[in-house]
Amino acid sequence: MQYINHNHKIGRNDPCWCGSGKKYKSCHMAFDDKIRKFAMEGHEVPSRSIIKTAKDIEGIKESAKINIACLDEVGKQIHAGMTTQEIDNIVADVTRSMGGIPACLNYEGFPKSVCTSINDEVCHGIPDQNRILKDGDIINVDCSTILNGYFSDSSRMFCIGNVDPAWKKLVDVTRECVQIGIDNVKPWTFLGDMGDKVHQHALENGYTIVRQIGGHGCGLEFHEDPYVSYVSKPGTEMLMVPGMCFTIEPMVNMGSDDIYEDADNGWTIYTEDGKPSAQWEVQVVVTETGCEVITY
Ligand code: MF3
Ligand code: CO
Q1: Which residue has a Cα nearest atom 12 of ligand 1?
Q2: Cβ < 6 Å from ligand 1: which residues?
Q3: Nearest CA to 84 among 122, 119, 121, 117?
Q4: pLDDT tens-place string over residues 171-221
Q5: pTM for the model
C-alpha cells in the first residue's frame, strides 16, 4: 500500500493524492491552490481527509443501496398498531441480508439499529417493543448503514393514518427545506449560504429549526467534519468543494426551537413545548456543478 503523508507538500510531478494516478499538477493542484486562497481570506476550508476520491464515492453509494432499501421496506410495512421494535427488526434484517451493518447499533452505546422519533420527539428515539404506532402519529425513521467500511445515512418521515393537516404540512415543508438545501449545495460557496436558505423556508412557514443538532460529514466515518447547521448565516461555515460528502437533515419544529434530552435513556431529544417536530435526511456529494444525492 502506498503511504501518502497528507501534510507533506506534494511535488508537481508526484502522483496526485486522490488516487487518480495522474500527476498532481494535472489533477488536484489547482484545486488545492483555490482552497488555500479561501483559507487565506479567513474562511473555514475542508481538510483533504474529508474530500472523497472516486473510489470512496463508489463505496458510499454501495452502502447507500442498503440504506435506501431499508427505508423502502419500512415504508411498505409501516402501519398503525405496529411497534417501533418491529421497525428496528426490518432495518436490522434488510441491512444484514444485504451484507451491511446498522451503523446506529452500539454507536456510543445506542442500543438499537435505527432511530424512531414520534411526534414531539425530535430525534434519537429508541425502538421499543412497547411503543405502538397509532393513527395520527408522524414518525421519523433514521437509518444509517456500514458496508465495507463506508457509511450512509438518511431518514424519512411517515404519516400514520389520518394525520392532522397542520402536522402533515410540517412534514411537507420539512421535505421542501431539504430540497432547498440540495438546490443550494454549490461548490465554492459556503455551508452557511445553504443553511440560511433552509432556515428561511422554515421561518416563512412559521416554524423554527433546532439549533444545537445538525448534519455532518459522512462516508469514511459515521460523523465526520463538517458540522452542518441550518441556522447559519450566508458567507459563514465551511467552504463547499467537489468531493465533500455530508448530510442535509434539518429538524423543523412547529413551535419553539427549544429542546431537551431524555434524562432516563440519555438519547431521545424532545421539543420543550411538546409540539411536533419533523426531519428528513439525505446524504449528498458535492460535484463540479452542484451535488449528487446519494441517499434519500
Ligand atoms: N442517524 C443520526 C444522524 O443523522 C445519528 C444517530 S446516532 C444514534 O446523525 F446513535 F442515535 F443512532
Ligand atoms: Co445524520
Answers
A1: 104
A2: 104, 107-108, 110, 115, 124, 142, 144, 153, 216, 247, 249, 281
A3: 117
A4: 999 999 999 999 999 999 999 999 999 999 999 999 999 999 999 999 999
A5: 0.96
